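Why does residue order matter? Because the sequence determines the fold. Keep that principle in mind as you read this record.
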Amino acid sequence: MYGIVDYGAMLTDRARLDAYAAALREVIRPGMVVLDVGTGPGVMALDAARLGARVWAVDLDDSVGLGRELAARNGLGERVTFHHGPVESLDLPAPADIVVSDLRGVVPVATGHLDAIIDVRRRLLAPNGRLIPALDRLHVAPVHVPKTWQGLAGPWSTGVLDLDLASVHHLAINNLTKVRLDADALLAPSRVWSELDYHRVDAIDVAGETAFEDVHGTVHGWLLFFDTELVPGIGFSSGPGGGTEIYGQIFLPLPEPLEVERDHRLEVALRADRVGDEYVWTWKTRHRGAGADRSFDQSTFYGRPLVASGLERRRGSFQPRCSVEGEIERFVLDRFDGHATVDAIATALRDAFPDRIPDHRTALTRVGDVSRRFGDGSSDS
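Structure:
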């Protein structure tokens, strides 16, 4: 869940905001239907309405309440309908001519992003409708960042308080971290390793590879970022020096610093595979050259501490029993029939689980949380 400070930061990122505003001005005509997915406090939805569009704005976040307030304050309340909930539960009275969104994380491979775009394109976009952004390109570059690498992997290599922590080093170097680097950290111009054409993409996993033959220096890892084409001729980059402030970049470390000469070849293959509700990143590095032929195979899967009991519960032959917490959640969900109120369900919950739910306030909190996550009621305005 974002807070008002997070949204404030997004609104002060003028490179992003101005690019989106320019893209909307380029394509919106009065009377068009516009869908704003992940609207937050509704700034882009209001901008589209001001251009003459009829707008539907959807978000899981409670900030849609701010959007309603701002729409009324700017005299646009009659032109924007806000929907609080998942876009998958939204139906439109007419197909959208324009769908605008920014559901990216640090890079566009973020949980729920591609799923939502594919669903919206198939169900809600008019046959000749347009998606904003239209295209994202994923970039990679080798970087020299000794302090960043040391902060991530160093403590596990050198130890602290006279303790040997080296057995955890392999976990540290198989994790990614968000960074904000300057352009001088790049040891070569970035290359595109994958491209997401949102009018055509139909898979939520992303993979690609590329190679560099002009690197000279100590490589500590790979930097990932993206550039976007919102509409032809209008876009921005999240890379170093790109001008945007909210995205940052992703740093994928190497297991150890790598000395690379200009006549060497540095290859990288990257994958982001959706597993459950998150992505597993894999990066394979190959260093070729005179006297140098090394390879590293890394993945965030290897960077997770694994507990035997947790693995056992995922085994196909495991026969799970529902915990008391699971029984409480099931009890609440079974009463979501469109008639019982949250207050009535809370009363029943307290009576059914007096040892776990000591008072009505606790019961209201539990039921309200389940309702926020799974309740499906009318919330349009």
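The mean pLDDT is 89.
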